Amino acid sequence: MRTATALSAATGQPCHVFNIRQKRPEPGLATQHLLGLRALNQLCEGNIEGDFLGSQEIRFLPGRIKGGTYQVKIPTAGSITLLLQLLVLPSLLAPKPVRISFEGGGTDTSFSPTIDHFRFVFVKILEKLGAKIEINILKRGFYPKGGARVEAIIHSCPQLRSLILNQRGSLKTIQIISGASDFLKERRVAERQLEATLAVLKKELLFSGEDENRFLIKSGVEYYQTLNPGSQINLRAEYEQTILGVDRLGKRGKTAEQVGREAALDFLKEIQPRLDGEACLDKFLADQILPYLALAGKESQIMVSQISGHARTNVWVIEKFIPGKFEIKDREIRWQPSQRTCTRH
Description:
15 strands; 2 domains; Dihydrodipicolinate Reductase, domain 2; globular
């Protein structure tokens, strides 16, 4: 639904989405989906039918995309990054910058990118396509109370560039941020997550024959004032041509050491060398970047770590709105635009 409505606004084509979250225990639109749709509708002066909690069907008729300032209030711990996924794409086509202030919600929640993955990985890859996005975190928010405050500025970019990412180049540095709520400071949760992560990385990288002095691991610990306890850790490998990232959240019943070790092992899977080509985008970013490749209207090619079900679903949706075809071979995704160009309205 996020991909369809965002592309609807970007291309000016109306859309009809039905059977929304049909197989979930609580089907239909939840609060964060509803808030995102209404913010999108405001951004493009559109018209929505079916925008109510629990709705399993919507019709969206987009209007003219505007710039300007918007405020989104989230009374739950709904994911701010998922709302940004919906709003960034059409905002790039606005005639002037779009400023969005989020009041409430979560910066680091389950089943969504953390705010650090969004700003340090996703946004950096978008910059390769010509986009410029600024993220300012005023307050973190964790499940269940949320309470975050985030400002996003999406600058106009009427024409995105194509992206060719099939070689990542030499590894320059590994960056790690381990953060936790002030509630967990006395228990050293952020430090323990980081220590466990570093122990795994140093052992495995040396075991695999990597020269520890060939690149620099930079790490830091942060504590935040939040409404309830929570923690997160973000790892990213910065290469000459790309960035690969992994994040993990703390969870009740799971030790900080477990969180750190699991994050490190996930990270090693993303960056490990492969005989069939180096991964240039992580498995989560792979599906998120696809709408932007298609909207650029030029041939693009990316090598990803894994082709997920989300990626295949996004391919199906994108091809409904933009003339062209995705080709997936092993872990390589190619976008080939058709001769028929896509122009808004």
